[in-house]
Amino acid sequence: MVRRIVTFPAEVLTRPTERVVEIDENVKRIVKDMFDTMYHAEGVGLAANQIGLSLSIMVIDTTPKEDAPNVKLVLINPEVLEAEGRVRFREGCLSFPGLTVEVERFERVRVRALDERGEDFEKTLEGFPAVVFQHEFDHLKGITFLDRLSGWRKRLALEKYRKLQREGART
Ligand SMILES: [Zn+2]
Q: Which positions are catalytic residues (predicted)?
């Protein structure tokens, strides 16, 4: 089921999500809805708080991006084990419709999480999938890509976003 995507500055996007205690039918339903919602919005990653649920769950599918490795993952209670290298990437966010900002991220991350069956796994992500992971991982911590900017860059991005919202509200 496609759910409504929460947009900034909703409070649920600005506080850390809760760890998932048990992977039950409800969590499996949420994961399925997150994929439905992400594909419907033509996104490549989604965090549970973006559909209003303060839970440590993210989904990623980079398959639609042609020049990137095809990585499709469910990550529940994810952790970063190692991170290295730096890349700059222009990112969009389904919770900031129309806005893109250039953010610096790690080039490679080794992550650990549970999948939707409750199995523990580790994986190394590199390049675009690593960037998507870090963007969603920030969401789970209550951080948005605006928080990765400083000073005037953050202020400009925020002004641009408010302008986009006003224009969107008029049409
Ligand atoms: Zn986002």
A: 136
Residue 40 assigned ligand-binding role: no
Query: Is 139 assigned to a binding site?
Result: yes
Is 136 a residue of the active site? yes
Calpha distance 78→153 (Å, rounded): 29
pLDDT in tens, 85-119: 999 999 999 999 999 999 999 999 999 999 999 99
The model's pTM is 0.96
* Residue 113 forms part of a structural domain: yes
49 neighbors 57 (Cβ within 8 angstroms): no
CA of 46 to the centre of ligand 1 (A): 7
| Catalytic residue from among 82, 136, 159, 167 | 136
Q: Tell me, what CATH number does 53's domain have? A: 3.90.45.10
